[in-house]
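Hi support team,

I've been running sequence recovery on a batch of backbones for a student project. Most finish fine, but this one hangs at about 90% for roughly twenty minutes before it completes. I'm not sure whether the input is malformed or the queue is just slow. I've pasted the structure tokens below so you can try to reproduce it. Let me know if you need the job ID as well.

Thanks,
M.K.
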């Protein structure tokens, strides 16, 4: 490899010298011919064969000398401008290949090299920064998935072991079986949400827009939780404007409403209140889902749309931290907006704005 590299550099040097030789020979020949022609005409000097032969030899030696000087100067110039910069970029790229995404290239002085290299360096540093972010997200995602899977699997293993005991009562057997079923359902829900979120983030799901009544969809989604609010005595307050038509993907938006309603009932204590409102203008249809639950702090609110983030660990067994990430992604795909207002001990209000047409 080293011999091949040395041979390549020698051939490259010869090639550059040949180019400079031709260029210098052409320029010197033209200049000399013009000078001699003007000189002979002005001074009325007759040029002999010996004089021309001597001038030709001196001109050729001059061309050889100038070509050599130009070649050396060009080699030094490229070493400190082009080759030095490309070496830094190549070395940094090799570190990226090895998995070091923290590597960055310092900008170069515009006096020593072409300023266009700084454009390449800026793009390289931006790419490295994005790769570092992606790697961090990937690492966190794998760690979170592993952690979330470990809990239900441990529950299933423990209760399955207890079920093998020959002297347990039928009541305990049903209790253990229900615990295993709940853990299985939680694991299934988590994997389903992961697949949905992955397809949404990779744009493998394309919205199928149709015109429908948003108020009717909200009522249908809300009625799915009727059993929960009746058992826990939660008051339901609805303020839904009639005949609010939107052009959107009803299946994707049903994910949004289901997750928001699920969170509202999950964090609202028995005897609390959940309110659903719908209003519209010419551009947007706005939906708010409010609860009188525990509320969230500003620190928690800054992360609630991140995957696997659960601000209230007391309800961790009831979810997997993917619901609001799904909601945010769907709203983004529908080119809508989502905001949250909350205060600890007061409650939380999510507001979603969807373009009507």
């Amino acid at each position: 490899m080293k011999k091949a590299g040395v041979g390549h550099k020698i051939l490259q040097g010869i090639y550059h010298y040949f180019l400079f030789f031709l260029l210098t020979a052409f320029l010197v020949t033209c200049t000399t011919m013009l000078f001699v022609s003007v000189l002979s005409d002005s001074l009325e000097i007759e040029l002999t064969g010996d004089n021309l032969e001597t001038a030709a030899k001196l001109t050729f030696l001059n061309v050889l000398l100038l070509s050599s000087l130009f070649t050396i100067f060009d080699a030094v110039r490229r070493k400190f401008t082009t080759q030095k910069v490309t070496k830094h970029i190549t070395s940094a790229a090799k570190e990226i290949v090895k998995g070091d995404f923290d590597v960055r290239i310092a900008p170069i002085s515009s006096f020593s090299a072409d300023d266009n290299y700084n454009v390449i360096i800026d793009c390289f540093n931006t790419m490295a920064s994005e790769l570092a972010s992606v790697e961090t997200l990937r690492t966190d995602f794998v760690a979170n998935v592993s952690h979330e899977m470990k809990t239900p699997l441990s529950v299933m293993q423990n209760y399955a072991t207890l079920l093998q005991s020959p002297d347990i009562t039928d009541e305990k057997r049903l209790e253990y079986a229900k615990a295993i079923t709940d853990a299985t359902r939680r694991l299934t829900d988590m994997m389903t949400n992961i697949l949905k979120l992955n397809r949404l983030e990779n744009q493998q799901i394309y919205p199928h827009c149709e015109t429908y009544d948003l108020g009717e969809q909200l009522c249908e989604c809300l009625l799915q939780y009727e059993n929960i609010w009746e058992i826990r005595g939660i008051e339901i307050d609805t303020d839904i404007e009639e005949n609010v038509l939107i052009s959107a993907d009803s299946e994707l938006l049903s994910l949004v409403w289901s997750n928001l309603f699920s969170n509202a009932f999950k964090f609202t204590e028995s005897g609390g209140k959940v309110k659903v409102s719908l209003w519209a203008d010419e551009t947007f249809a706005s939906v708010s889902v409010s609860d009188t639950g525990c509320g969230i702090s500003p620190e928690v609110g800054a992360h609630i749309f991140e995957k696997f983030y659960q601000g209230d660990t007391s309800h961790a067994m009831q979810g997997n931290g993917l619901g609001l990430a799904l909601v945010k992604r769907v709203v983004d795909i529908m080119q809508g907006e989502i905001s949250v207002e909350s205060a600890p001990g007061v409650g939380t209000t999510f507001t979603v704005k969807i373009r009507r047409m």
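--
Follow-up from support: It reproduced on our side and the slowdown came from queue contention, not your input. The CA atoms of residues 154 and 241 lie 47 Å apart. No action needed from you.
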